Amino acid sequence: MLSKFHYGILFGAMSVSMAVQAQDYLPVLQYHHVSVSSPKSTSVTPEQFTEHMDYLKNAGFQVVDLRSALDDLKAHKALPEKAVAISFDDAYRSIYQAGFPILKERNFPFTVFINTEPVERKSRSFLTWEQMKEMEASGGVFANHTIRHPYMLRKEEGESDDAWLSRMTKEVDTVEALLIKNLGHSPKMLAYPYGESNRTIRTMMEERGVMAFGQQSGVVSADSDFENLPRFPASGAYAKLSTLKTKLDAKPMPLLAEQAGGDFATDKPVSIRLTFKDGKYRLKDLVCYVAGQGKASLDWVSENEVIATASKPFGVGRGRINCTMPDNSAKHYYWYSNVWIRSAPEHGYVSEKS
Which element (helix H / strand E) includes 218? Predict the structure, then answer.
């Protein structure tokens, strides 16, 4: 029989083991179509998707329910070691036809962010409510992707700021109501169409208790902005398993603060100021890449503070800076990404002050 002393040692060892196994961050994979006939830029083939899911299973990843994991992270509760979540944007029927059987066979939970307009008009290319109910019975969760998948920061011609905000409110609230009507509940999560949001839209999410995702890459942690969360795209150019492995092993960049100058880029090169938490990091190995431009210049203004600057302005559309840094083991990379919008007058974007 073990003495109290030995029980203490055993319990302590178990606590240490559990602490080692705990994970305080979450990579989230983003898919769209699972098909050979849909646009390649937003698709994985069934074979590629099978390869991804087999890797998760064989490499010991723990696929977790997205909303539950986000709640745990926000509450500073540990996730299982090698936790990962799977998500899809848009309510494409190929998810049900080709993706769902693969997920169901492996008992993997997943989340689909649905835009409801094509669902409601019963488009043959999109999911039905009955298919969603069937998928729910095997780990599927359905969340908000607005009614019509609009650019949420663009006003219609002649539209006032108040009318724009009212329209965006309807885009969000209508889908929440449809989820409750047809499925009986909502997870209160949303993916911004095209990843675009601003302070006004993110405040709307916060007021509704909705956690929301952009399209910047990275890992979710307790320090994340829960109204503008990152995900890793895993379709199209990002479907190669070798690059996906690197992202699955990523950690959140250990930042104390970040300053990006807002959501919009101008006719000047963008820059971002990153302040790192105290700790021993390989800061000299930090590299930041600007979309379409190569490496950003790095100006270290102090031992733990750097300004990364693009070499030239972004073109019209969305641009980003991705920063990575190896951890001390060199087995993982810290990862950070920020996205800006370079607007054009004909697009009718809301005021950059919104």
Answer: none
